[in-house]
Amino acid sequence: MHQVVVISRNTPDTGLRAFNAIAAHKLDISRAAFTGGGPTAPYLQAFKIDLFLSRDTGDVQEAIDAGVAAAQLYAAPLDYSAPDNQIRIAFDGDAVLFSAESERIFAEKGLEAFARHEQRHRKKAMKEGPFAKLLLALSAIQKQFPPKQCPVRIAIVTARNSPAHQRVIHTLRTWNVTVDEAFFLDGLGKAEVLQAFGAHMFFDDQEGHVQKAAVVVPSGRVPYKGGTLEGVRVARGRGTKG
């Protein structure tokens, strides 16, 4: 059973307003935690949270460091209209669904070294990233429905190109996950693709990608564990990876 849980640093007294708002909007939310100014991360495991979303950078970082899929939400587009009858979620690949290993190689050694590494390991599945468990959970939901009746649709939207796409496909096969759509953009902007896909939410590790995507679809930035990925800021702009 999947539920939405409100976890807030507000006091229990202030939390009454949250429940009043939930009731006013007729939302199916019955669980909440109000920490009275204390950290929220220690309670995520207790509530068995699969995904933590917040506008607070510190809370999101603490959640990622605690091993929970988390993203810092950006302001949603004012004119956004969600597709009906289906939840559509789009993910970046490296450092989101997959580990940051390949991202680190690109950051430290550049695009050519990244391409050589991915070609050499094209048949070796990547390690799980912070959102891998969420992808697996969504995949399990999908398998409960006939394909044309599934309420969840998943896309991978990545700047990887051919032949670096091979390792992505091999990894998904190893995980026994079938995504509905995949886009290997080779430097093409992600925003227009995400808008065409009709994403209810897009997750990416790079601030620049999230800022542009957030203009057209709800988006969230996934921070690196520990807050940094060595070399990323120096290497940005080399080629089209990311």
Question: Can you characterise this structure?
Answer:
With about 240 residues, the chain is α/β, with parallel strands linked by helices. Helix content is about 35%, strand content about 15%. Helix 1 links the parallel strand 1 and strand 2. The longest helix has 13 residues. The radius of gyration is 18 Å and the shape is globular.
Mean pLDDT: 89
| Strand portion | 15-25%
Spatial gap, N to C terminus: 35 Å
Share of helix, binned: 25-40%
Return the structural class. alpha/beta
Largest sheet: 7 strands, mixed
Oligomer: single chain
Strand order across the largest sheet: 3-4-9-8-5-6-7
Count the E strands.
Answer: 9
Number of helices: 9
Low-confidence stretches: 231-240
Specify the overall morphology.
Answer: globular
Query: What is the string of helix and strand elements?
Result: EHEEHEEHHHEHEHEHEH
- Computed over alpha carbons, the radius of gyration is 18 Å
Short description:
With 242 residues, the chain is α/β, with parallel strands linked by helices.
What keyword list fits this structure?
single chain, 242 residues, seven-stranded mixed β-sheet, 9 strands, globular, disordered C terminus
Give the arrangement of secondary structure elements.
Blueprint: E1 5-8, H1 12-24, E2 31-34, E3 52-54, H2 57-65, E4 70-73, E5 87-91, H3 101-109, H4 111-120, H5 132-142, E6 152-158, H6 165-174, E7 181-184, H7 191-197, E8 201-204, H8 207-213, E9 219-221, H9 232-235
Parallel strand pairs: 1-2, 3-4, 5-6, 5-8, 6-7, 8-9
Antiparallel strand pairs: 4-9
Helix pairs in contact: 3-4
